[in-house]
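Deliverable D4.2, example record:
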Amino acid sequence: MAMNSNASQPNHHSFILTGIPGMPDKNAWMAFPLGFLYTLTLVGNGTILGVIKVDESLHEPMYYFLSILAVTDVSLSMSTLPSMLSIFWFNVSEIPFDACITQMFFIHGFGVVESGVLVSMAFDRFVAIRDPLRYASILTHGIIGKIGIAVLTRAVCVVFPVPFLIKRLPFCHSNVLSHSYCLHQDAMRLACASTRINSLYGLIIVIFTLGLDALIILFSYVLILKTVLGIASRDERLKALNTCLSHICAVLLFYVPLIGVTMIHRFGKHLSPVVHTLMANIYLLLPPVLNPIVYSVKTKQIWRRITYMFQRRMNRA
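Output generated by the structure prediction step:
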């Protein structure tokens, strides 16, 4: 009876996004830093893609996976860009219900894709260190393409039910979200009906995609470390481990903020809304900005190519 009563109440046709909680007059101060971060994301990842495309010596499995990661990072950033711009640049906080659900699908979808790409890159490092002579023959263009399709298909299949699970809920109380973009867990808490199915499905996604991916990556590095310790030469051991540093940084940049956001959502309800907003923004904005910087600095081939391109432009000027 309660469900029917709630469903009969008027349902919201839009959500209200939140900029800086409790300080809406300060939103304009965030416009330029956010614009700078989005610009840095596009320039950084675009540079990585351009360098890999131009330099034939980088046409190797490791760099193909890095290209996929760069495309995923840009896509994830572009998923949050429309609502971020509308709030901080144009002071428009309202988002239509269907647009919110669409954004939700892409944000969660590309998050799962990024996790899958990081698993693929861990497998790439394992093959490169465990069997370097057969590295190129194992990870052929066809295999890399199939891995990419599998990662994307998994993300679509996993996230596909989320919009329908949200759409079935009535929203007859507050329609104010706590972030500058739409997340499943954020919209779910505003429903005036049972969200048990949504919560259960969200938990299943976290455990069997992101959680399982993290365990696979950890297991991959246990095998990598075992292989490296079997190498006689100390210099060769360090050289092998050095090829993994960039990927390890990318994994930490993705999973540490993700764990932080999850813990705050579950156990930090007493914390200031500003803390929730800050952690959520760090989770979505930091990896796309820092990943190309990490790979540029830590990967000598990419750094040399970027330096060479920069010097050529300076000489032409």
